[in-house]
Write a structure and sequence with these properties.
Radius of gyration: 23 Å
Number of domains: 2
Helix content: 40-55%
Distance between the termini: 46 Å
Number of helices: 9
CATH architecture of the largest domain: 3-Layer(aba) Sandwich
CATH class of the largest domain: Alpha Beta
Order of helices and strands: EHEEEHHEHHEHHHH
Largest sheet: 6 strands, mixed
Shape: elongated
Number of strands: 6
Strand order of the largest sheet: 2-1-3-4-5-6
Structural class: alpha/beta
């Protein structure tokens, strides 16, 4: 099972959620990021709404995001409701130049100015950890969205496209793996071509 590293300074609930979700993890002091999957070159920086606010104001987040650029897949994950956080600031009289305009502007800047960084906001930390699990599972799984996965361009699909499309219906075979399989295994390609020819003969497959 793929292993992830969780910074020891993360709250106990993060480790509890990781265990509950069946993640294979180890607590460790991390120099960059809060959760890292070295095997898939993924890094996650977790922030509460307050953490995000304070780290924008003091400039710490900018430094963290620059350091994360060495990973091919980097995520800034923000936990909590912005409306609830802003209400709390008003109650405590600590508005500190932070409102929805600054907040959404900061989110936009993070998405645009830091290369491959993706920013996602969650209602709570359980949802955040569930997302991390799914990202690790789906990264580099060989699947991709293309013409083979949609009917929008079906009239433009060639016979070679159809051969690949048929093979991608088997579990674990995305477009890239299917193409490689067809290149090295001529018997499988021959069988798929025969199937297409039978469908043509019976009138079930008509090319545009």
């Amino acid at each position: 099972m793929i292993k992830i590293l969780i910074d020891k300074r993360e709250p106990k609930k993060i480790f509890s959620f990781a265990k509950e979700l069946g993640l294979n993890f180890e607590g460790k002091m991390l120099p960059v990021g809060d959760i890292v999957c070295e095997e898939k070159n993924i890094i996650f920086e977790r922030k509460t709404q307050e953490d995000f606010h304070q780290s924008i104001i003091n400039g710490r987040l900018q430094k963290q995001l620059i350091q994360m650029k060495s990973y091919s897949n980097s995520y800034l994950l923000i936990s909590g409701s912005i409306s609830k956080y802003l209400q709390q600031l008003v109650i405590n009289n600590k508005f500190l130049r932070w409102n929805e305009n600054y907040y959404y502007g900061s989110l936009a800047s993070c998405n645009i100015r830091y290369g491959n960084l993706k920013v996602v906001v969650f209602d709570d930390d359980y949802g955040l950890m569930h997302f991390i699990k799914k990202i690790i599972e789906k990264t580099d799984d060989g699947k991709s969205i293309s013409i083979y996965d949609t009917e929008l361009l079906r009239n433009k699909v060639t016979e070679d496209d159809m051969i690949v499309k048929i093979v991608t219906n088997f579990p674990g075979l995305g477009v890239i793996r299917s193409k490689k399989l067809l290149e090295r295994d001529t018997e499988i390609k021959e069988k798929v071509v025969n199937l297409i020819n039978i469908m043509k003969e019976k009138g079930y497959y008509k090319q545009a």
